Fold these 3 entries.
Entry 1:
Amino acid sequence: MIVFKCETFNNLNIDELHNILALRSKVFVVEQNCVYQDIDGKDKKALHIIGYLNEEIIAYARIFDKGVIYPEYCSIGRIVTSFSERGKKHGNQLVEFSIKQCYKNFKSRAIKISAQAHLEKFYGHHGFYASGDPYLEDGIPHIGMLL
């Protein structure tokens, strides 16, 4: 069973930080064949949602209070599950836990994400709806979505 925790940047240990960055790089850079700067200086301002399965990090997201990424919205980003664990509903659990942590930690019900366009229906199942026109981010079609 997957176990989630929410940590500040300063409470991550070196192994956790390494494994988070490795998972993000493996999926967003290598798997998606997208060269971009993943380490963007925002991790220190985020709360980190970490999903463990048998002591291995297999899911991750980072959340921000309003005013950090978007002026009027909290946000969830870098939502990722390891390739070997996809199709097992861990992504759904990750998004649900991330939303709850936004509500708990930031006291706001307004959340905005920048979703890869092909995942619009997935996020729609969690109550998000498209806002604005599709756009390219690092060469990948994205759509802004609100909850």
Entry 2:
Amino acid sequence: IPGGFVQPGESPRQAAHREVVEELGIDAVVGRMLAVDWAPSDADGDKLNFVFEGGELPASTEFTFTDGEISLAQYVELDALEDYTIARLARRIRAAAHAEQPRYLEHGHPLA
């Protein structure tokens, strides 16, 4: 999942679009916000992570990994996310994928 930091004067949605362009080499439409996740970290400091809808891409979409942060892009089943990424990101993606409205998460866990 593409990601990064918001630059000065940039909204989280603008940052999401920029990161998709930089990391996947595609000019995809960034849709509605699905989730915001408070991610505590003793090493890096706490962060807020925003997850936006990216729509469906045609099977013919070709990715260009220009910045070297991502080396492979593919669709995977939600049940298999832990095979491809770290647990907290898998939780975040899964919670966002099931969001009918924007969700607030803490470390990837939805709050009731």
Entry 3:
Amino acid sequence: MKSIILFRHAKSDWDATYSSDHQRPINQRGIKASKLMGSYLAKINEIPDLIISSSALRALQTMENAISTGKWESKIAVKKEVYHASVSTLIDLIKRTKNIYSNICIIGHEPTFSYFLKSITNETVFKFPTATMAKIVLKVESWNNLDNKSSKLLWIRKPKELSNK
């Protein structure tokens, strides 16, 4: 069985100085949320084998905070195609993942994640806030067999829900 954790980048800093959208950093709230989510995955023993991150600065900073706080020892792949990816691009990327990895985490963006969830699990998610995670389980042995008949949304966690506990 395989699983995917979708991890939307943390809250970005619109007031920062940056040369392009790709270079926009996360803000203090984003730092706190990404650390919280990294610790959460460690606490529930769901640390991914492989992280596939967008190359956008805010995604990379989200990943770095989660890894350092949660003490993840995951393999990392930074993929430019995750930035502005379509659902079909994400599916193709996942299907090319080596089968030695059972649990992957994709750090990326909206609205792609909402559309991906709908496409792969038939679940409609109307809001996928920053630093939110969603876990999808797949009843397949190979990433290449990814389809919506074998995929189920297991949970969605938002930083706001976890910080109130």
